[in-house]
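Lab notebook: predicted structure, single chain.

Context: the supervisor wants predicted structures on file for every construct in the current expression panel, including those that have not yet been purified. This is the next one on the list. No modifications to the sequence; it matches the entry in the shared construct table.
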Amino acid sequence: MLNRFLQLRLRGLIVLAIILLCLPAFLSNPFHYDLATQMAIIAATVVGLNLLVGFAGQISLGHAGFFGLGAYFTGIMTGTYGWPAVPALIVGAIVVGFIAWVVGRPILRLKGHYLSMATLAVGFIIAIILNNERAITGGPDGMPVPALDLFGWELSSFGQYSLFGLEIEGFLAWYLFASLILLLAVWFAQNLIESPIGRALRSVHGSEVAARVVGVDTAKYKSLVFVISAVYASLMGSLYAHFQGFITPAVASFEFSIVLITMVVLGGMGSTFGVILGAVVLKLLPQVLADFQELETVMFGAILMLTMIFMPKGLLPTLTAVVSKKFEKKLEKKAGGAS
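Prediction complete. Output recorded below exactly as produced.
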């Protein structure tokens, strides 16, 4: 069973890598690459959030706050104090992880809507701080962020780079880099899920009481996954800040937190590749519906509502179940015909 899962996990990563490598063939201008790069960064963020929500069963309505903290930390450190980007990303992730641990220990004792309200309050507090500290963050006007400096190699959407002897545009280089980060994020999440930590998280999701009875330190594992998901958000927020070149407190807003949690639910909680699909769909829908102008929001909401009604388990788990049933029926027909 374990070997079968490992094979499926490897196949999933290979399929995702092939899709990411082939996608540039369908991208015709910098705007398409910009959208695809944003998708990859946000998809990696929701992969981390899915560890908390889908596997540990702990809700977070303020997760954009950690995304925003990572974005602003690297923006301030690199732009104001001249830090190299990589140390800023790493230190930012450590700081955000520590903050998540400090706030997570008390609020993760709560359950249900009490936990939802607590995480919502954390997100609001972070957004308010980013808005009000004008001298440091630029306030509502935001702040510029330097290009990403990777050990002396500056990654910018407007540059040109040589890769394996080929000259590529900066927006393609950014897309490839974000795709690599997404693959690493998925690889780490998949390995964590099948580790003893992942099994403990699933037991917490199933029943905290039963988990405690068999010796699982539920408080420890809930805090751990909260920190891991916050570190995911911080790192992706930092990359997003360098990619965009400018950030505002909107990156830590309540609306963005709702978008992130909706991506997880839409794609399928507990499905790593499902939440990636949810991120892609939710980022693409506004572009597809843009021509409907004032009806865009109504149609967007209607599509999400209908999806949740008819696909309550999420897009990918539902589609996978449908395909599996059809495949099983075909096998049964063949077996019946052979007999």
